[in-house]
Specification:
Helix content: 25-40%
Shape: elongated
Number of strands: 4
C-alpha cells in the first residue's frame, strides 16, 4: 500500500505554545512542516455557555503512518484539557512536495 500524507488541524491558545509544539514535532521528525496562523478568533460552547477567544491555528504536515504518534505528542504538549487535533486526508499534492515530506520524516521512521 502506498504511503499517504495527512494534515493535522490544531487550534491553540497562543503563538508561543504553537512554536513550542512545532519545534518539538520537527525535532522528533514527526512532521516535515508546521504552518502557524495567528489572529484567529474562535467562538464555541464551553461549560454551558458560548465563549469567544483569540487562538492560533497550526496545520501539521505528516505521513499517515505517523499521524497517531504526532497527535499523541501534540496532546501531551497542548495546554487545553480538550484539544482539537483533527486529521485531514490529502488527496492531491504536488509530487515534489510529497517526496520532500517523505524524505524529511524518513529517518525517524527507520530508527523506530
Amino acid at each position: 500500500m502506498e504511503e499517504k500524507i495527512v494534515f493535522l488541524y490544531v487550534p491553540i491558545d497562543n503563538l508561543e505554545n504553537a512554536q513550542k509544539i512545532a519545534m518539538s514535532l520537527l525535532n522528533e521528525r514527526l512532521c516535515a512542516c508546521v504552518n502557524v496562523y495567528p489572529g484567529v478568533r474562535s467562538f464555541y460552547w464551553w461549560e454551558g455557555k458560548i465563549e469567544e477567544s483569540p487562538e492560533v491555528v497550526m496545520i501539521v504536515k505528516t505521513r499517515k503512518s505517523l499521524a497517531e504518534r504526532t497527535a499523541a505528542k501534540i496532546k501531551e504538549l497542548h495546554p487545553y484539557s480538550v484539544p482539537c487535533v483533527a486529521k485531514f486526508s490529502v488527496e492531491i499534492l504536488f509530487k515534489p512536495f510529497a517526496e520532500w515530506l517523505f524524505a524529511e520524516t524518513q529517518s525517524k521512521i527507520s530508527k523506530g
